[in-house]
TrEMBL record:
This is AGC-kinase C-terminal domain-containing protein. Residues 65-97 form the AGC-kinase C-terminal domain. Keywords: ATP-binding, Kinase, Nucleotide-binding, Serine/threonine-protein kinase, Transferase. One of its GO terms (molecular function) is ATP binding. It comes from Arion vulgaris. It comes from the Eukaryota.
Length: 97
């Protein structure tokens, strides 16, 4: 995750420096990188989706190009991942901390 360090104090200091200091891995596309930074502005009024067009600005972002917003709203989308769950208390799909 963007704000992580080798120990809690380092993580805290990375958080204090802000989102603009984060260097994303090459696995994260440029459009995702830009979207994340726009959503994580320190000042809420500067965040994508806060302006006059609201969530429409988020929906129109390049990273969401081709996304089925109507399918999301109508609950008709097929999930990209369907985890296997053995029983109601199965937690094997979650990381251990």
């Amino acid at each position: 995750p963007p704000f992580s360090g080798p120990d809690p104090m380092r993580t805290y200091n990375i958080i204090l420096k802000g989102i603009d200091q984060i260097e994303f891995t090459k696995k994260i596309s440029r459009s995702a990188h830009v979207l994340i930074k726009k959503l994580c502005r320190d000042n809420p009024m500067e965040r994508l989706g806060y302006g006059r067009n609201g969530i429409s600005d988020i929906r129109k972002n390049k990273w969401f190009q081709g996304f089925d917003w109507d399918g999301l709203m109508n609950l008709t989308m097929t999930p990209p991942i369907i985890p296997k769950v053995k029983n109601p208390t199965d937690t094997t799909n979650f990381d251990s901390y």
